[in-house]
């Protein structure tokens, strides 16, 4: 087993009385593109700030590239590329001035690569930062995050300020390029259709807790929507976790974790359901906003013990 690039073990963080992260454990392996998913306020940015040593944890262990960010934040800054959600930049500088200003902070700054990204992202070198559009600011932030060829790239909602065409290009070209170079990418987002084609691993964070970390393909195989007669639900709930149930004509559509076991038990009963494959968006929604009857939860209780 290789050493993980990122490891969080039982990490907690509060701001005053508000507990923002509860017992968070995550692992990101070298070369992975890791999608860190959560709704607004779930705790994604707080986790990222802990990884960069910009905040201190209250409890738990964190290792990034083998270092403790609370102690080695400066060393890490040289080895990690970070694009913040709301990147603050010196508005009075021109694009080329800012790039020249930032370069000496990094030992591995690659001037040719910076020029290439500036060209590819069509950034106007002589324009002042304060006159750039939002999308241009994101693209400039990316140049600054990537030109020192970091081993780990952390992108906090990077596609947020980009138009749909730029977003597609971003995913197809940039992430593929980073993957091709073997870089590890942690990509925080709630624009899931953007993440789906590029992520190897997915973690779903909700209200400061990790609900699931799984390889994207495994998650898709494990979580399915089954359309079946309502009276069969308790049977399913005994072998699988029902995340969401909603009416579907005379039947119900149940989104379940553990689809294989559910299908096996329904096959034994001679009542195979209609199976619907789900995209990441639908899986995410089932985990964070799924609704299940209270009576079904009672059936499920023994499973949780
Ligand atoms: N410095 C702070 N002081 C107090 N509360 C904070 C601070 N930073 C974050 N929070 C709170 O912690 C919670 C998690 O915020 P965080 O920014 O980590 O969420 P997020 O998942 O990144 O959300 P978004 O997708 O909206 O950026 C929120 O309720 C937020 O208000």
TrEMBL record:
Query: Could you tell me which PROSITE patterns the record lists for this protein?
Result: ABC_TRANSPORTER_1, ABC_TRANSPORTER_2
What are the ABC transporter domain coordinates in residue numbering? 6-232
Looking at the record's lineage, which domain of life comes first? Bacteria
What gene is it encoded by? ytrB_2
UniProt-recorded name of the protein? ABC transporter ATP-binding protein YtrB
Tell me the InterPro entries matching this sequence.
AAA+_ATPase (IPR003593), ABC_transporter-like_ATP-bd (IPR003439), ABC_transporter-like_CS (IPR017871), ABC_Transporter_VariousFunc (IPR051782), P-loop_NTPase (IPR027417)
Which SMART domains does this one have?
Answer: AAA
Q: What Gene Ontology molecular-function terms does this entry list?
A: ATP binding; ATP hydrolysis activity
State the UniProt keywords alphabetically: ATP-binding, Nucleotide-binding, Transport
């Amino acid at each position: 087993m290789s050493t993980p690039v990122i490891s969080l073990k039982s990490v907690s963080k509060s701001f005053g009385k508000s507990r923002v992260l509860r017992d968070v454990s995550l692992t990101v392996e070298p070369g992975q593109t890791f999608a860190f998913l959560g709704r607004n306020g779930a705790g994604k940015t707080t986790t990222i700030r802990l990884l960069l040593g910009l905040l201190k944890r209250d409890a738990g262990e964190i290792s990034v590239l083998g270092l403790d960010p609370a102690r080695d934040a400066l060393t890490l800054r040289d080895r990690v590329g970070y694009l913040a959600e709301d990147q603050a930049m010196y508005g009075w500088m021109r694009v080329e001035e800012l790039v020249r200003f930032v370069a000496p902070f990094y030992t591995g700054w690659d001037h040719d690569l910076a020029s290439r990204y500036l060209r590819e992202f069509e950034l106007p070198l002589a324009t002042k930062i304060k006159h750039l559009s939002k999308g241009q600011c994101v693209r400039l932030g990316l140049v600054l995050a990537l030109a020192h060829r970091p081993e780990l790239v952390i992108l906090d909602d990077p596609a947020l300020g980009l138009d749909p065409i730029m977003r597609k290009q971003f995913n197809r070209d940039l992430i593929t390029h980073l993957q091709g170079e073997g870089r590890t990418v942690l990509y925080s987002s709630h624009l899931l259709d953007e993440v789906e084609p590029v992520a190897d691993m997915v973690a779903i964070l909700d209200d400061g807790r990790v609900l699931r970390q799984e390889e994207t393909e495994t998650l898709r195989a494990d979580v399915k929507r089954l359309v079946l007669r309502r009276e069969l639900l308790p049977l399913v709930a005994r072998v699988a976790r029902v995340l969401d149930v909603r009416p579907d004509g005379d039947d119900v559509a149940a989104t379940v974790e553990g689809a294989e076991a559910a299908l096996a038990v329904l096959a034994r009963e001679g009542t195979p359901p209609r199976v619907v494959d789900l995209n990441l968006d639908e899986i995410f929604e089932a985990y964070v906003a799924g609704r299940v009857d209270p009576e079904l939860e009672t059936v499920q209780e023994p499973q949780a013990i």
